[in-house]
Design a protein that fits this description.
mainly alpha; 3 helices; elongated
Length: about 60
Amino acid sequence: MIEDGELAIFESELIKLMNEYRKCVDHSLKVKIHEDIAWLKTVIISAGTYEHQLKMNDLESV
């Protein structure tokens, strides 16, 4: 089970990766970042509450 502090760190890292993804011009790096984003979203959604799931749905634009 992921604790609230860990979940907050994962969410912070997800936001950083999403910003990096938007700025990235290297296609191969962008693919890797997208994989990391997908993994973090999976972890957050599987461990999070309903509110976190709604938040992740709002971030689905990436």
